[in-house]
Fold this sequence. Notes:
The chain is of the alpha+beta class. It has a single domain, classed as Transcription elongation factor, GreA/GreB, C-terminal domain (Chitinase A, domain 3, Roll), CATH 3.10.50.30. About 25% of the residues lie in helices and about 30% in strands. Strands 3-2-1-5-4 form a 5-stranded mixed sheet. A hairpin with a 4-residue loop joins β1 (about 35-40) and β2 (about 45-55). It is elongated. It starts with a helix and ends with a strand. About 15% of the residues are buried.
Amino acid sequence: LALARAGRDARYYSARHASAELVGPPPADGRVHFGSRVTFDRDDGRRQTFRIVGEDEAEPAEGTISYVSPVARALMGKEVGDVAVVAGGEVEIVAIG
């Protein structure tokens, strides 16, 4: 069982490595892109900051979210001052880095 699991994991990581794409820094055009660090205010007064990363890099507790997450998808293409709907509530973008 352990050998089968190790083989499966090795195949998975090998496939992920083969399909990985190096992405440069996001454009400095004032919009949210893959790789952007976005700070936003929620309806309930919380301020959160996340960097938008690939699926394998995402660790929300450490401030990174996947580009396919609902939060990231709602923020993509937005600018400072824009409002997006996230989890049924609104968030306002206050900074993009």
